[in-house]
Design goal:
The structure is a homodimer of 243-residue chains. With 243 residues, chain A is of the alpha/beta class. In chain A, 32% of the residues lie in helices and 22% in strands. Chain A has nine helices and twelve strands. The first copy, chain A, has helices spanning 10-16, 21-27, 35-43, 69-75, 110-122, 140-146, 160-169, 207-212, 229-239, and strands at residues 3-4, 29-33, 47-52, 64-67, 84-89, 100-105, 127-130, 155-157, 173-177, 183-184, 194-199, 215-218. In chain A, helix 5 (110-122) packs parallel to helix 6. The longest helix of chain A has 13 residues, at 110-122. Chain A is elongated and about 60 Å long. Chains A and B meet through helix 5 and helix 9 of A and helix 5 and helix 9 of B.
Chain lengths: 243, 243
């Protein structure tokens, strides 16, 4: 079995570069850590290679490279290192059903992005579309927050300003969360095809997308009037979950 | 005006120690940073002192100590330092209304704890009770995630096993989130006084508290069957928000 001992090894440098978004974009590859996430990615057929300092790995049929502990520490996003790291390829998606969609307009926090993806999968949403300025799907913190859910639904990066008119043509009702000039969430009725837009943690959904949406809703609050975007997404997706 | 230049100053050592939970518990004091949080704490009458490297601070009538930038950096929880840091005292609470309560059983992540507190305030809950093994309310990350909400409702650390029977005596219905032997959340009916229990990120609500609860509910999912605890709390608190 191949064994890598040196931090100077060309492959180690290549893999370490995957901590950077631009290298993930260029290569279409990303890193994950730990048995649970690797199992989820393997079940989606996305794992190319597992790097480990263990002689035996719990993933039959997947290519395994043995590496020295110092190499594992270098590749890990955790201070304490990791025993199992995988190189995955980004999935490509077939035609997506348009029954229940989540649109994210400029989410900045990888933990919020990951939690929103996890919630979308749990409530059987059909896909997540993100604006170009939303943080990276394949950031380690995003992946960890999804708990592996990101391997289970289409994640698409796009220009939302172009997407909304396309969704309208397909009969999808687009609903933006907003504070002003909006209807209470409880009064929103179900439609066959719905897309919900959540916005940036500080600014909310951009004015342009709010204007293009069919409805603007606000979640009814009587106190502090402040909700984390992943919590707002959970409230909206739970009520309109796919059955 | 008093000015502190040295990192060896006894007060700097005393304030820096407030980054540790045991020192916060011993002194009943905690640190916060930034104009927004300090304003929220000042409006609740909790700020004892503002430390700043600015000659003028935007908090009239509050004691101000001038400090050198290196002192500010030492006191700050942020790598980039801070211009405004306050020493606050933990609030004490009068009798709490028991209409809508949140009980937290072993929450470990400060971000989740802070987000749950923020959501509880936004949906006009009357108070948050935490088990002894829930992480600290006054951890910097918890405070930041509350967005200042923690100054607006009672936060009480207690033994939940003793609290639940007391709540029963007061006519409060206790509802635990659970996976097994539970009813769908949608079938739960409103009661005048309700307390919702959310559990540890990995283990959920402890078996003992689940058993003591009047109802065990599960949030209906059809996909990945995995929700972040702050998202689950948002879904529950939204539906039973105080009007």
């Amino acid at each position: 079995m191949e064994k890598i001992e040196s931090l100077q090894n060309a492959k180690v440098r290549e893999w370490t570069a995957l901590h950077e978004k631009k290298e993930r974009d260029r290569t279409g590859r990303f890193l994950i850590e730990g048995e649970h996430l690797i199992k989820e990615a393997a079940s989606a057929g996305l794992v190319e290679l597992v790097i480990s300092d263990l002689e035996e790995i719990p993933f039959p049929g997947i290519r395994h490279v043995l590496a020295a502990p110092k190499v594992m520490k270098k590749l890990s996003a955790n201070v304490s290192g990791a025993h199992l790291i995988a190189i995955c390829r980004k999935p490509s998606y077939e035609a997506v059903s348009l029954h229940r969609l989540l649109l994210l307009d400029g989410i900045q926090d990888p933990g919020n992005l990951g939690t929103l993806i996890r919630t979308a999968v749990s409530f059987s949403f059909d896909g997540v579309w993100c604006s170009e300025d939303t943080c990276d799907f394949y950031n380690e913190k995003t992946i960890r927050s999804t708990q592996g859910a990101l391997f289970h639904l289409p994640l698409i990066r796009t220009d939302l300003k172009e997407l909304v008119p396309e969704l309208h043509q397909q009969g999808v009702k687009v609903i933006a969360t907003a504070l002003d000039a909006s209807i209470p969430f409880a009064s929103l009725e179900a439609s066959e095809k719905m897309a919900f837009v959540l916005g940036n943690e500080g600014q909310g959904v951009s004015a342009e997308i709010q204007k293009a949406a069919d409805e603007r809703i606000r979640i009814e609050m009587h106190g502090f009037e402040s909700l984390n975007v992943a919590v707002a997404g959970g409230i909206v997706m739970y009520r309109f979950r796919a059955q």
